[in-house]
Each structure stands twice: as structure tokens, then as C-alpha cells.
Write a structure and sequence with these properties.
Its main location: membrane. By secondary structure, the protein is α+β, with helices and mostly antiparallel strands. The chain has 16 helices and 18 strands.
């Protein structure tokens, strides 16, 4: 048992010109202070205290001295020309050493800091120091320091040594035995003279008063409990759980593929004249297959002559010499058609009231496929150039935290932050493994479909088989890479989560949402979808706006005005492009583009209110614009601090709106949902609902001060290792995976339907 001594002094004098000086000399150090003790606050405000109490640095007993013997000299002096009364009291601390799993209550103030000793038990390698208080203020600081004298226990020097956190109602620090060679440390508690560091305000009674002294009574009741942290075996269990849990998805995928292979083999045995397309549906090659729905009930049906005319026009353009490898630059058609080809002009075809997939899949399939593969190669390049500086930056953040000991830099859930090596919260990083593993699994699934599709083309001239949705896998590959990169960048963000690097966690979320919308649109508009260059340029603009929002989006009204205008104008421009099926080039004239948008509203909504020319598109665009304008107004009025999440909300709402519209129109067109996409839709809804529940269990918030954020910290809920946010990582990875499968399998029922029977919406 280590003994400690506490010295209490009091003086009634408030004369700052002649303070009373106290010097305490010990065996290994000297401690000094003055009364009145002066603390400086914000804007050079000063606070003085007449009562001061300090704990002297304890000395270990030696063979030459008895355990209870300590020699201490206390010198008292003042330069005052008059007598000053003071009181000096030296007491022995009975409860200086803290015990494991035993709560200890005490009181501290700015002039009366406290610190205590803790020694690691033999079987404990790591402990968590939990500190709680019923009152948020006054603001306090909790510090863990090595056994070195003097102990830094005042507001102006507590940050000089060890690890420290600011605190309102709760603080937690994880301490490992390996960091303290002596297997013991001091836990120091300091009360700050002002509360602004914890999110509070300066007391109203001293606003506007500079260089005055105030004898404020700022005491705080605290309770400290030191509990053992998890053992190394829990780390191993958590790693096995993370990897085996997601490897089960691989096993499930193998089982589904095997069952599909067996069922396909049986159908091939029963029907020798059939061929599998892209590993999904079956179609007979010897006889044409009619539409899956009666022609009279199909969506937007027109007479057979019109459909056959569309097929005849598309055949010469889609046929290409065998083995030709045309560069993607030849994919664009001339804007000037000769008279004999006027009937095949894309602008004339796209003005039809009822469009079919054969009208929008007229380009050479191989050229279009190359165009979409650019998405895959570009996103790999973007990922490398984006991730490398991010990794370097977060390593720097973690190094600064480890060197300075300032745990206010990173917003962890300190009640469930398990360190490993140099990482302060390994559990938050490990939980992102699901994104990487499921992203890679999705790439394998897409690769399998791609290979099966290529084999089908080798078995039969696919260009004569105008059935099903055109198979272009470039966007799917890009989505798989984006999911993997989301895991990498989310892990980077959680190395040191804070306000400055939150955009790392959201950048590829924007790209995932954008790629999903592009893929959904590409499904029935393969010839007019955006190119990879324009799509990624748009994502770059969005990420640039997100960075500007982090810098200027807190309180600057001008930024929100400009952003809202850009948002509304972009919505109108995109609506014009979608409504006209890409027949109007944005680059031709921006003024003309918006004039044309107004003309659309006039002709289709005012002159023909009863029935716009493209009713379904008009309904989608009206609802979409109302949603986006609502977001713009909300941002302009409330100006949310979390600008990155605000933009992500815009992307997600637009994606959900378009997906709902697509499924509704698919069912309205009497198309079917096969068991696998139906299962994926249900799984997506269920897993997203569970994931969002855990997402909204806020465990920290960089929108507040670090001390206020720690009030939201909560213990682990899974295996004693993962917290609510880690569970969100697991479930969101699974939800994104199922969402991708929905897009991949949604139109498998159309593999046996002619393209001139598949409506476009």
C-alpha cells in the first residue's frame, strides 16, 4: 500500500500584488504554488482562488526508511509589507490507491485537483477507466500519467504528459500494461476554470470584464471505476466471427450456383435444342419465343408492323463482321443521316410514344460493352489515387494521437474501443471487412454470369437472338469495386473519426448510389446511358461540393444559397435529358436547355394536362423534382452541419424513388419477379431496416465537442467486442450486397422475351 500526503492551504487575502508563496520540498521533487492561485481563461480572463489543495508525489519506501516515514519541508513566504493570515493543513490520504472493480467517489475543483494510483493485478493486461458525474459542468479533464514526479495536475499543464480527455458527464480511457513498464500509473482529475472547451459558455456575470479576478466556486463530484478490459482470446473470437460470418455468403452463393447448374442441366436434357443465356433464363434456338404476356395486355402495345419495322431497322446496325474489334470511338452515330436512312434515325425512333427495348438497343453490342467496361477500369484508377493519400493522412492522425496523448482529436466510442498495435479502435476497423469480402463475392458472381454469357455467344450467333435485356457487365464490375473501396475508406475514417475526414467514409457511398441509378437506367436504355467519363466527372463535382460543405457549410448562408441553386438547376437539366431520352444535348446551349424544359411543362402540363405525351416519365420527373426541391429548401432553411450525410441522403432518396418506380412499372407491364430477385428484395428490405436501427443508435458525434460526444458512448453489445456502429457495418455490407443482387437479377424473367416486346420506362 502506497501512502500519500495532501497539503491544504487557505488565505483570506485577495491581494494579487503580494501573494503568499508555498514551496514543498520532498525527497525527489519540489512543488510550489501561490495563494491566491490564478487561472487564466478565454480572452485573458482571470480567476483567483484562496483555497488550494494539492496531493504530494508519493515516494516508494526504501530499505533505509520505514514505510510510514516521509520527510517533507514546507516553506511559506510573502513580500507583503503587512501581515497576511493563512491556514496550512497536512493530511494523510487513506484511499490513494484505486482498486479493480470498485467505485470510488470524490470531489475536485480547479484549485483542488485530485489524482490516485492504480497498479495492474497479475492477471490483467488491459483496463478501462470509467469516470462518471451527475453534472455536465464544470468541465473537467481526466489524465493518465506515468509514475513520474512532479505530477501535472493543473489546468495549464495537465496536457504536458500522458493521455488525457476532456469530460462533462462521462469519460473512458483504455490503458494497457505494456505502455507502463512499472505496471502502475496515476489517474489525474483536473477541473477547468471555464466550460467553453466542453461546449459550455463563459459565465454571463463576467462577459465583457477583462483582467478581473473572480473567486468562483466550481466543484464537481466524480466517480471512478477501473474494470478489466477484454482478453486476447476475445480478439481471436471477433476475427473468426467476422470472417466466417461473411464466408457463409460465399457458401450460400456456391450452393445457389450448384442448384442452378443442376436445374439447367436437367432442362438441357429435356430440351436438347435450347441454349442458356447469361446463366439465367432458357430459350429455344429452333423456334421463336413469343412474349411472356399477351400482346393485348402488354404495356404500351402497338401494332406488330411497327415493332417488326423497328427490328428490321436495327438489324444492319447491330450486325458486325465476325472477329472485328472496333474502337469505342466509333460507337457514336452521325448527326446527319442521308435520305434512305432517315427512318432509322435515332431521334425519330425515340419520339415514339411507346418505346420498346429494341428501339434503344440498336448499337453494336461489342462496342457498347467496351463503353461500359470503361466504368470498371476508371473506378480502379480513381480508387488507387483516392485511397493512397487517405491512408497516409489517417496514419498521421493516429500517430499524432499516440504521440501527444490527446484523445479529443478522434471521436471514438471510448466504452467500446479496443486497441491493437498502434490502432486505438481496432473493432471499428475490423467490422468493415464485410464490405471488402462481399464486394469481392459480387465480382465473382458477375464474372460467372459474364463467362456464361460469353459461352452462350460462342454456341450461337447472339446477334440474331433479340431476347432479354442486353448483357453489359461493366457497371456491375464497377459496383463491386466501389463496395470494396467503401470498406477500405470506412476503415480509414474509423482509424480517427472526426469532422475533417468524414468525407472519406461517404465518397464511395455517393459513387455506389450513383452507379446503381446508372445501372438501373442502363437496363432499358443501353444506347443512351451516360459515358464513364461524364459520370465520374459528375461524381467529382459532388465530392468537391462535399469538401466545400465541410469547410463553409456550418454557418455560411451564401454557400447554401449557391448549393441550392445548383441542386435545383441540376435537377431540371437531368429531367430534360431523361424526358427527351437523350435527344437534347446539354452542351449545345444551357439557356436553350432550360427554355426547352419550360416548354415541356407548358406543352405537356398546361396544353395537355389530361394526358402528357410521356405520362410515366412525366410522373416520375415531377415527383423526383419535388423531392429534390424539398431537399434544397430544407438545406437552405436548416443548414445541417453534417453536409456529407445531407448529400448522401439526396442520393439515396433519388435511388429509392427510381427503384420503386422501376419495380412498379415492371409489375404494371405484367412482368414477373422470379424467386431469386424476390428473395433478394425481401432480404434487402429486412437487412436495411435492421441496419438503419443500429445506424441511428448514435454513439458519438463530431457535430459536438469531444466531451459532449462522450456522453453518448455505450458499452459493447456483440461478443464484448463490437458496438452498435460495428453491427451497422456488418448489416449495411450485407444490405448493399443484396441490393446489388436485386439489380443483377431483377430482369431475369425477360431472358425469354423478345426485345420488341419489352417496354421502356
Amino acid at each position: 500500500q502506497v501512502d500519500a500526503v495532501r497539503v491544504y492551504v487557505n488565505s483570506s487575502s485577495e491581494n494579487l500584488q503580494y501573494p503568499v508563496l508555498f514551496v514543498v520540498r520532498q525527497q525527489k521533487g519540489v512543488l510550489s504554488w501561490q495563494v491566491p492561485l490564478i487561472f487564466r481563461g478565454l480572452y485573458q480572463r482571470t480567476y483567483n482562488y484562496q483555497e488550494v489543495s494539492r496531493t504530494l508525489c508519493p515516494t516508494e519506501p526504501t530499505p533505509e526508511t520505514r514505510p510510514s516515514d516521509q520527510i517533507i519541508f514546507v516553506d511559506v513566504a510573502s513580500m507583503a509589507p503587512f501581515n497576511i493570515a493563512y491556514e496550512l493543513l497536512v493530511t494523510r490520504l487513506e484511499n490513494f490507491q484505486l482498486e479493480t472493480n470498485k467505485a470510488f467517489n470524490f470531489t475536485a475543483s480547479p484549485s483542488q485537483p485530485q489524482y490516485f494510483l492504480y497498479k495492474f493485478p497479475q492477471d490483467v493486461d488491459s483496463v478501462i477507466i470509467n469516470v462518471v458525474s451527475d453534472a455536465a459542468y464544470p468541465c473537467s479533464v481526466v489524465s493518465v500519467q506515468d509514475i513520474v514526479c512532479p505530477v501535472y495536475d493543473l489546468d495549464h499543464n495537465v496536457e504536458f504528459n500522458g493521455v488525457y480527455q476532456s469530460m462533462t458527464k462521462q469519460a473512458a480511457i483504455t490503458v494497457q500494461r505494456k505502455d507502463f513498464p512499472g505496471e502502475q500509473f496515476f489517474v489525474v482529475f483536473v477541473i477547468k476554470p471555464e466550460d467553453y472547451a466542453c461546449g459550455g459558455s463563459v459565465p454571463s456575470s463576467i462577459h465583457g470584464n477583462v483582467n478581473r479576478t473572480w473567486n468562483l466556486q466550481r466543484t464537481k463530484n466524480l466517480q471512478v471505476t477501473i474494470v478489466p478490459s477484454i482478453k486476447k482470446s476475445v480478439y481471436v473470437q471477433a476475427m473468426f466471427f467476422s470472417f466466417l460470418g461473411f464466408l457463409s455468403f460465399y457458401l450460400g452463393s456456391v450452393i445457389v450456383a450448384f442448384v442452378h447448374y443442376i436445374s439447367t442441366g436437367m432442362r438441357l436434357t429435356l430440351s436438347p435444342g435450347s441454349v442458356s443465356i447469361a446463366g439465367s433464363g432458357m430459350m429455344t434456338s429452333s423456334h421463336p419465343i413469343s412474349a411472356s404476356t399477351p400482346e393485348g395486355s402488354s404495356y404500351g402495345a402497338i401494332d406488330e408492323s411497327s415493332s417488326s419495322g423497328g427490328r428490321q431497322l436495327s438489324s444492319p446496325e447491330r450486325r458486325a463482321p465476325a472477329g472485328s474489334d472496333t474502337d469505342s470511338s466509333v460507337e457514336e452515330e452521325s448527326d446527319f443521316d442521308t435520305m434512305p436512312e432517315i427512318e432509322s434515325d435515332k431521334n425519330i425512333i425515340r419520339t415514339k410514344v411507346f418505346l420498346y427495348l429494341s428501339d434503344l438497343s440498336r448499337k453494336d453490342r461489342r462496342i457498347v460493352s467496351k463503353k461500359y467496361k470503361i466504368y470498371f477500369w476508371n473506378i480502379i484508377t480513381i480508387a488507387v489515387f483516392y485511397a493512397l493519400p487517405v491512408i497516409q493522412l489517417v496514419i498521421t492522425y493516429q500517430t499524432v494521437v499516440n504521440v501527444t496523448g490527446n484523445q479529443d482529436i478522434c471521436y471514438y466510442n471510448f466504452l467500446c474501443a479496443h486497441p491493437l498495435g498502434v490502432l486505438s479502435a481496432f473493432n471499428n476497423i475490423l467490422s468493415n471487412v464485410g464490405h471488402m469480402m462481399l464486394g469481392f463475392l459480387f465480382l465473382l458472381i458477375v464474372l460467372r454470369r459474364d463467362i456464361l454469357h460469353r459461352r452462350a455467344m460462342e454456341m450461337k450467333d447472339i446477334y440474331t437472338l433479340d431476347y432479354g435485356i442486353p448483357k453489359h457487365f461493366g457497371l456491375f464490375y464497377a459496383m463491386g469495386i466501389a463496395l470494396m473501396m467503401e470498406g477500405v475508406l470506412s476503415a480509414c475514417y474509423h482509424v480517427c473519426p472526426n469532422y475533417s475526414n468524414f468525407q472519406f467514409d461517404t465518397s464511395f457511398m455517393y459513387m455506389i448510389a450513383g452507379l446503381c441509378m446508372l445501372k438501373l437506367y442502363q437496363t432499358r436504355h443501353p444506347d443512351i446511358n451516360a459515358s464513364a467519363y461524364s459520370a465520374y466527372a459528375s461524381f467529382a463535382v459532388v465530392i468537391s461540393l462535399a469538401v466545400l460543405g465541410v469547410v463553409f457549410g456550418k454557418n455560411d448562408v451564401w454557400f447554401w444559397v449557391i448549393f441550392s441553386m445548383i441542386h435545383v438547376l441540376a435537377s431540371l437539366a437531368l429531367s430534360t435529358q431523361i424526358y427527351y431520352m437523350g435527344r437534347f444535348k446539354i452542351g449545345e446551349c444551357y439557356v436553350g436547355m432550360f427554355r426547352r424544359a419550360l416548354m415541356v411543362l407548358y406543352t405537356d402540363c398546361i396544353q395537355q394536362c389530361s394526358r402528357p405525351m410521356y405520362m410515366d416519365r412525366m410522373v416520375l420527373l415531377i415527383v423526383g423534382n419535388l423531392v429534390n426541391w424539398s431537399f434544397a429548401i430544407f438545406g437552405l432553411v436548416y443548414r445541417p452541419r453534417d453536409f456529407a450525410s445531407y448529400i448522401l441522403g439526396i442520393f439515396i432518396c433519388n435511388l429509392l424513388l427510381y427503384l420503386a418506380f422501376y419495380i412498379i412499372m415492371k409489375l404494371r407491364s405484367s412482368e414477373k419477379l422470379l424467386p431469386i430477385p424476390m428473395f433478394c428484395i425481401v432480404a434487402t428490405a429486412v437487412v436495411w431496416a435492421a441496419a438503419l436501427y443500429f445506424f441511428f443508435q448514435t454513439l458519438s458525434s463530431w457535430e459536438e465537442t469531444p466531451a459532449e460526444s462522450r456522453e453518448k458512448n455505450r458499452p459493447c453489445i456483440l461478443l464484448g467486442f463490437f458496438d452498435d456502429h460495428d453491427v451497422w457495418h456488418f448489416l449495411s455490407a450485407a444490405a448493399l450486397f443484396f441490393s446489388f443482387l436485386v439489380l443483377l437479377t431483377l430482369d431475369d424473367d425477360l431472358d425469354t422475351v423478345r426485345r420488341d416486346k419489352i417496354p421502356v420506362f
